[in-house]
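hey
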């Protein structure tokens, strides 16, 4: 029976650690770190996610700002807002919530963010530094995964890690982090995806599986070996009229079957999800130290 990796518990611990650091900053006459979030439109899921980030800022003593812009906003106006945030000395870091409306070029928007304020870690400068194992902002979900592995003392050295999915937000960065020369790394990494032939062969030979596919219950018990560590990043709403909300959240792993073979496994919800916001707060504190304390 697998040990359940409790992301909610670890994220709470991280928030406590950050809160203690903020209290020390304030006690010495400093100001609170400031995170801003830009939300374009009224997408329900995005609004909920951003609201959770704002609430988490309050928990740790951060100042937060929500810039809610209309769905119809022109790209040029959004870029001007980003320039304003880049130049605002009281804002340490900010995020632009994705996805953006189709009439806006996401790449152009992300490139416009000052890398020193890019607490989402999406800017090519930060991605490149991460790939070179340099100090930088690591995108929140991969950062959160590394924190879980560290705090559960899961050995990655010399292990075969299989990453399912190759997105720029999770799959690619976590594959790089797991292969880097570091205590939390030193894995032999295989990235599999929709074009991979005989994907089951790779997962059956994995010591660690990190799945960021977005297909509920994709990873079955017959696709994993005994003792595997499963980090399930996938989160999909599955219709269930017996539930009050009309749906349940499912991960990529068929949890009930694979947990019988796994040594460690993250649940959905309550695994990787809470770590994403905790990691964003860690990045914001780092941005404060770079942009504010470093400018003194």
């Amino acid at each position: 029976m697998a040990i359940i990796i409790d992301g909610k518990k670890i994220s709470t611990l991280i928030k406590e650690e950050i809160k203690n650091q903020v209290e020390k900053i304030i006690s010495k006459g400093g100001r609170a770190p400031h995170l801003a979030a830009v939300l374009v439109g009224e997408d329900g899921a995005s609004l909920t996610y951003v609201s959770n980030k704002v609430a988490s800022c309050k928990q740790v003593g951060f100042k937060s700002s929500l810039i809610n812009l209309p769905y119809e906003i022109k790209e040029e106006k959004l870029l001007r807002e980003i320039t304003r945030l880049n130049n605002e000395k009281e804002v340490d870091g900010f995020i632009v919530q994705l996805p953006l409306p189709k009439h806006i070029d996401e790449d152009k928007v992300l490139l416009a963010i000052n890398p020193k304020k890019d607490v989402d870690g999406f800017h090519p400068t930060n991605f490149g530094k991460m790939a070179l194992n340099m100090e930088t902002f690591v995108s929140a979900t991969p950062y959160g995964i590394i924190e879980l592995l560290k705090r559960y003392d899961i050995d990655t050295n010399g292990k075969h890690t299989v990453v399912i999915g190759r997105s720029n937000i999770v799959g690619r960065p976590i594959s790089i982090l797991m292969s880097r020369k570091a205590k939390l790394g030193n894995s032999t990494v295989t990235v599999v995806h929709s074009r991979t032939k005989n994907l089951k062969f790779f997962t059956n030979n994995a010591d660690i599986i990190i799945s960021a596919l977005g297909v509920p219950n994709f990873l079955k018990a017959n696709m994993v070996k005994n003792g595997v560590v499963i980090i399930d990043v996938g989160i999909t709403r599955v219709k269930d009229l017996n539930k009050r909300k009309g749906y349940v959240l499912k991960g990529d792993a068929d949890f009930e079957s694979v947990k019988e073979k796994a040594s460690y496994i993250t649940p959905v919800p309550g695994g990787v999800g809470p770590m994403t916001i905790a990691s964003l707060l860690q990045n914001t504190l780092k941005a404060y130290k770079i942009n504010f304390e470093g400018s003194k």
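The first strand starts at residue 3 and ends at 4. The chain has two domains: 28-114, 140-274.
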